[in-house]
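Hey team,

Sharing the tRNA-intron lyase run so nobody has to redo it. Sequence (246 residues) first:
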Amino acid sequence: MPARWKGKAAEAKALAEPMSTIVYRLQSSLIESNSQGILSGSSVLLAAHEEQTELFNHACFGRPVITTEKNKQWFQLCLEEAFYLCTVMKCIKIVGQNNCVKNEEELWDYMSSKRVNFPILYKAYSHLRTKNWVVRAGSQYGVDFVAYRHHPALVHSEYAVIATSDEDGNGNRRLKVWSDFHCTLRLCGSVAKTLLVLHISRNCNDCDGASSSPWSINYYSVEERIVARWNPEQSRENCTVAEKEP
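Structure output:
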């Protein structure tokens, strides 16, 4: 399914300013200002000045929080976004209630306790983000994420993403029977999205102890599977079979 741009100039605007460039500018700004996020339940709150506010909005990280402060804008980051900014882009630090900076292992333990199946979901999120897809929550479509090739103001989301794993107790029991596929595909078709299943597999059989640490991500690989409904009309030959002579 081709990208569905919003307006005639949308594609040209996206090409003129790639998402990778916008994300790099945000990364540089956050490093320069030594930005810190604050753990708050199942999210992370981060304050941004005027320039960073624009970059956050353009890079599609977090959601703005309405406050009465005039010179500071707060953003609410989901756990996957916050961990990605902290550990992959290394542009923010995250503190707890005691105002002490959390290391990667402490963050991993905290986030894994707050969100079911966090390791699998984070691996799926980071896999797409490192490929410069804009990744947003997909709960309104019954999936884990939706992926855009650029800012949602310029293009409609292209993929509805579900992260799966064969591991026991992974907390994701969807797409186990044909009826799950049928319902999900019908929903994706009704909103003009392609179903992308990211199957997360652990490559190391002797690294069970690593599953409770952030370094366990290094032991997982991602297999991309695009699932589509079979359309018999599109599969038929254009020519008709000649009738046999009597």
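The chain has two domains: 8-115, 116-228.

Ping me if you want the raw files.
A.
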